[in-house]
Amino acid sequence: MHCAILKAEAVDGARLMQIFWHDGAESLYPAVWLRDNCQCSDCYLHSAKARKLLLEALDVNIRMDDLTFDQKKVYITWPNGHYSEFEANWLKKRCFSQEARAGLQGELFLPECQYWGSELQLPTLNFEDVLNDDDHAYKWLSSLKKVGIVRLTGAADKRGEIIKLGKRIGFLYLTFYGHTWQVQDKIDANNVAYTTGKLSFHTDYPALHHPPGVQLLHCIKQTVTGGDSEIVDGFNVCQKLKEKNPQAFSILSSTFVDFTDIGVDYCDFSVQSKHKIIELDDKGQVVRINFNNATRDTVFDVPIERVQPFYAALKEFVDLMNSKEYKYTFKMNPGQWITFDNWRLLHGRRSYEAGTEISRHLEGAYADWDVVMSRLRILRQRVMNGN
């Protein structure tokens, strides 16, 4: 009876529909929204789950002509004789109350975020289980969304395994470095990752206007000494920076920084973008970090008096990342993966010695968060329904 209708009536001159539910809750629905979302076959293409009704045909001042109901449905007739039916469950889910809207947004976008520091217990799953079992795949992607990183074990230590993981999600994200790329020491490297030097904390590819959301890294070969991976929860560090130095947080979340990447790989490229290092949503919450010191451009499009304060703010942010309290260090072994949120985590690598042969080899790829979230929603539905 949770979504059973007790009473439904037109109010405010038939511009609103009010529903009283059996559980004691009440809901209001604007007539214009109801007409816009009519579920009949003339107004809605059910095979595509898409609206057919054109906005040009919508009367934004429309009123209901007649309204009837039973426990499971509401039935509305409009002034031109058009008829609509709305199921109780469908309406209850789309209630305009703040509580209902927050609940539905949570269900759609799964915003729960578990912050961590050096105490991180790295979520770990088996690679083959993730490929072949929906429950494990759901645990993988839900942990990736919540914690920001998941380790997978048990893969073969050879190239090409990453394609399997890409297909499990849907498809990989093509960049100027290809669908996949090889992280190893290279002569005349076109990226600092393709050297043996230390990599400071960074997110990948802020030189793109839409940096890839998820990164996949598969360890094929690992050096005996050095080459340890370092990660830090950027959202956690942002929160600490805001508490410790609100002015520095404000500078980094309001200053546009130029990033560039020029070279040849999958094809030749000359990429340029502008990002705030700490990107906020309309509620002031951190939603993405854009920072790679290697590709931060020499061009800096700010008035001269803002240059030194920016550097001071950025230095404090980086110093926080590098403090023992927040960073987590580990070493990848052949056959292991890390999959992580490139908008949230910053990652780095300790240096290792160059040799006559390749001593460390990772294969990497990117995925877009839209693709990952699509698969996560589908898996969530399957697991919840027991399919």
TrEMBL record:
<dbReference type="GO" id="GO:0005829">
    <property type="term" value="C:cytosol"/>
</dbReference>
<keyword id="KW-0560">Oxidoreductase</keyword>
<dbReference type="InterPro" id="IPR042098">
    <property type="entry name" value="TauD-like_sf"/>
</dbReference>
<protein>
    <recommendedName>
        <fullName>gamma-butyrobetaine dioxygenase</fullName>
        <ecNumber>1.14.11.1</ecNumber>
    </recommendedName>
</protein>
<keyword id="KW-0479">Metal-binding</keyword>
<keyword id="KW-0408">Iron</keyword>
<comment type="pathway">
    <text>Amine and polyamine biosynthesis; carnitine biosynthesis.</text>
</comment>
<comment type="similarity">
    <text>Belongs to the gamma-BBH/TMLD family.</text>
</comment>
<keyword id="KW-0124">Carnitine biosynthesis</keyword>
<dbReference type="InterPro" id="IPR003819">
    <property type="entry name" value="TauD/TfdA-like"/>
</dbReference>
<dbReference type="GO" id="GO:0008270">
    <property type="term" value="F:zinc ion binding"/>
</dbReference>
<dbReference type="InterPro" id="IPR038492">
    <property type="entry name" value="GBBH-like_N_sf"/>
</dbReference>
<dbReference type="GO" id="GO:0005506">
    <property type="term" value="F:iron ion binding"/>
</dbReference>
<comment type="function">
    <text>Catalyzes the formation of L-carnitine from gamma-butyrobetaine.</text>
</comment>
<dbReference type="Pfam" id="PF02668">
    <property type="entry name" value="TauD"/>
</dbReference>
<dbReference type="GO" id="GO:0045329">
    <property type="term" value="P:carnitine biosynthetic process"/>
</dbReference>
<dbReference type="InterPro" id="IPR010376">
    <property type="entry name" value="GBBH-like_N"/>
</dbReference>
<keyword id="KW-0223">Dioxygenase</keyword>
<feature type="domain" description="TauD/TfdA-like">
    <location>
        <begin position="115"/>
        <end position="366"/>
    </location>
</feature>
<dbReference type="InterPro" id="IPR012775">
    <property type="entry name" value="GBBH-like"/>
</dbReference>
<dbReference type="GO" id="GO:0042802">
    <property type="term" value="F:identical protein binding"/>
</dbReference>
<feature type="domain" description="Gamma-butyrobetaine hydroxylase-like N-terminal">
    <location>
        <begin position="14"/>
        <end position="91"/>
    </location>
</feature>
<dbReference type="InterPro" id="IPR050411">
    <property type="entry name" value="AlphaKG_dependent_hydroxylases"/>
</dbReference>
<dbReference type="GO" id="GO:0008336">
    <property type="term" value="F:gamma-butyrobetaine dioxygenase activity"/>
</dbReference>
<dbReference type="Pfam" id="PF06155">
    <property type="entry name" value="GBBH-like_N"/>
</dbReference>
